[in-house]
Amino acid sequence: MSEERLQSMPRGYSDQREHALAEYIKLKSFTLHEPQPKAAWLSGSIVDEIVKLSKAATDLIIFGTEAIETGRKSPNRKSV
User: Fold this and answer.
1) Which sequence spans correspond to the domains of the chain?
2) Entry's Pfam families (predicted)?
């Protein structure tokens, strides 16, 4: 992986450092994409395709939101 990532597990996830997906948990960002055919743009169905992709990403968005909220509530969080 060449993406920017944390050196250690994020706060609240240290018990998951042996998890098969631990390296993904350390990533600083996620990008979701799906190539769309030219026909979707020309026919106007691109909006429906974007809605489908957004719905498919719901679990990832919820995970990210909950992780951010957990970090904000952490008693060890340093103010900036």
Assistant:
1) 1-31, 32-80
2) DUF2461
Is residue 27 a contact partner of residue 3, using CB atoms and an 8 Å limit? yes
Tell me the C-alpha distance between 14 and 21, whole Å: 13
| Residue listed under structure tokens 């952490």 | 74
Contact 32, 57 (CB under 8 A): yes
Q: 């395709």: which residue's tokens?
A: 49
pTM above 0.85, yes or no: no
* H/E stretch holding 57: none
Helix spans in the chain (H): 22-25, 38-43, 46-56, 58-73
